[in-house]
Design goal:
By secondary structure, this protein is α+β, with helices and mostly antiparallel strands. Helices cover 36% and strands 12% of the residues. A hairpin with a 2-residue loop joins strand 4 and strand 5. Helix 5 packs across helix 8. It binds fe (ii) ion (FE2) (2 copies).
């Protein structure tokens, strides 16, 4: 069954390639605080007698302070058990068959799981000591702090132990950013925006915690952050997606009439946090389309494209209102957006390369995935009002994706090589970004429109291969390299 045929044909038409053949069908390979033990070694600990004395270390291993922060006093040996059931070989989709197929990390195990698309096999990796992880990585034990992984994981580490952070501690940041679980170790400093979750007013801001959201920089900073990895069109400023913090207000709600009475309180609260984050991302998309409209004007785009971009901003406004209403009903209190502050007023860059790269990653890829995900979620949502809201969003996202492909087609034809090179770079980055499964989110609840992580990863790769790749290949001048999304396993600790 070719369930993405309609979406593919719509976007091929938008890209100006109505006569192109559709993607050939193919089998989609689905990808799919431990107790400290004896210190393994002291490797990685700086020993600088001139440095200020670190916070006194009461013992070895992972330490949890009264304010909830977790830091690493010394290396520990983790339990590397992966308790998930081994792949039987009879699952519907097989990314691996035996443990021998899992070679991308330490102690690979081919495990069996069940997701939206049925049973599948995928690789999981665990570690016992830092020595099994890559350079600048450490092994984080299962159950440490806020880590949700079901086994130990290798995580990017800007410090290994407290002694690497003179006068401070080497803190563990573990949080779900909306696409995967980011696990990082970084020094805490007095210049950080927050010192603990309490600084982020967690009661008023569900899902927000004091974490290290930027894991790419060499000097990561602790700040209040929640779900930031967006499907759709995020508002990206200085390389990071931005969204407003939640505020207690009810003037950003469009009635969704969701029935929440039968849901347990814990499920309601977690789902509320999820939809509050979704709403904030939809709200930020309004600013993103406003910026895109200005970029199109700056580049001399046709009136039709500028008009569509403005209409898309109004769609996003309605998406935000629907999502804030769903979040408010689930939470039992009014939730709306706070100010977007300087993010909404950030300078508008209008260079051809930066506009094309953002267009490809956020629009051609992000909105295409968003349209397919919205369709899937509306199909499985049990509540009719929720299903209707998701279907409305999915239909709009499909138009936004079509706008993106039309705009890319125009930019390639108008600006030639600089636009083509930028598009190639952006498609490659997007392929790498979605080649791994997201880590499990705060709640997997298909009836509430929250897919399990493996199912979401598999769906995204399916859409990349069956919709994005043929649309890309249909655009003149673009290569077919990287056109097929490689199936992959869960990220090891932190990944894209
Ligand atoms: Fe949207
Ligand atoms: Fe959108």
């Amino acid at each position: 069954m070719d369930r993405h045929r309609s979406l593919r044909m719509t976007l091929l038409l938008a890209a100006g390639a109505a006569g192109c053949s559709s993607a050939k069908s193919r089998d989609i390979a689905v990808v799919t605080l431990a107790e400290p033990q004896a210190a393994a070694d002291d490797a990685g600990a700086a020993d600088d007698p001139a440095a200020p004395a670190p916070r006194p270390q009461r013992s070895a291993g992972w330490m949890q302070e009264a304010d909830g922060t977790v830091h690493r006093a010394s290396p520990v040996r983790c339990d590397a058990t992966i308790a998930q059931r081994a792949c039987a070989g009879t699952e519907r989709s097989l990314q691996c068959r035996t443990d021998a197929d899992c070679t991308e990390g330490p102690r690979g195990k081919c495990v069996s799981s069940f997701g939206q698309i049925g049973p599948y096999c995928g690789c999981e990796y665990a570690c016992e000591t830092d020595a099994e992880c890559g350079p600048s990585e450490v092994c984080v034990c299962k159950g440490t702090g806020a880590l949700r992984e079901e086994h130990s994981v290798c995580a990017k580490a800007l410090c290994a132990v407290d002694a690497d952070c003179p006068g401070s501690t080497c803190g563990l940041s573990a949080y779900f950013n909306g696409c995967w679980e980011q696990v990082t170790l970084a020094c805490r400093t007095k210049d950080d925006a927050c010192q603990s979750d309490a600084d982020c007013a967690p009661d008023a801001n569900p899902g927000v915690a004091c974490v290290v959201p930027d894991i790419e920089g060499e000097s990561a900073r602790w700040e209040c952050a929640g779900i930031s990895c967006a499907i759709g069109r995020p508002l990206v400023v200085e390389g990071a997606p931005r969204a407003a913090q939640p505020a207690a207000r009810d003037d950003w709600r469009a009635p969704a009439a969701l029935d929440v009475a039968s849901l347990p309180p814990e499920v309601r609260e977690r789902a509320a946090a999820h939809y509050a984050a979704v709403a904030a991302l939809e709200h930020a998309s309004i600013a993103s389309f406003a910026r895109f409209s200005l970029q199109l004007l700056a580049l001399g785009a046709p009136a039709a494209l500028v008009g569509e971009a403005h209409r898309a901003a109004l769609d996003e406004l309605e998406h935000a209102r629907l999502a804030y209403d769903i979040a408010s009903r689930l939470a039992g209190r009014a939730i709306g957006p706070g100010p977007l502050l300087d993010a909404a007023a950030a300078p508008v860059g209008a260079g051809v390369a930066e506009v094309v790269e953002a267009l490809v990653e956020e629009g051609c890829v992000g909105e295409t995935l968003g349209a397919a995900e919205g369709r899937e979620l509306s199909r499985i949502a049990a509540d009719p009002a929720l299903a209707a809201a998701l279907a409305r969003i999915a239909a709009d996202e499909e138009r936004h994706a079509a706008l993106s492909w039309r705009a890319l087609s125009w930019m390639l034809a108008t600006f030639g090589e600089p636009a083509r090179a930028a598009a190639e770079r952006a498609f490659s980055r997007a392929a790498a970004r979605f080649a791994v499964d997201p880590a499990p989110g705060p709640l997997a609840h298909e009836a509430l429109g929250l897919l399990p992580a493996h199912a979401l990863g598999a769906l995204r790769r399916e859409v990349l291969a069956e919709v994005v790749a043929p649309c890309r290949a249909a655009l003149p001048g673009l290569s077919r390299d990287n056109a097929r999304a490689a199936p992959s396993s869960s990220p090891r600790g932190a990944s894209a």
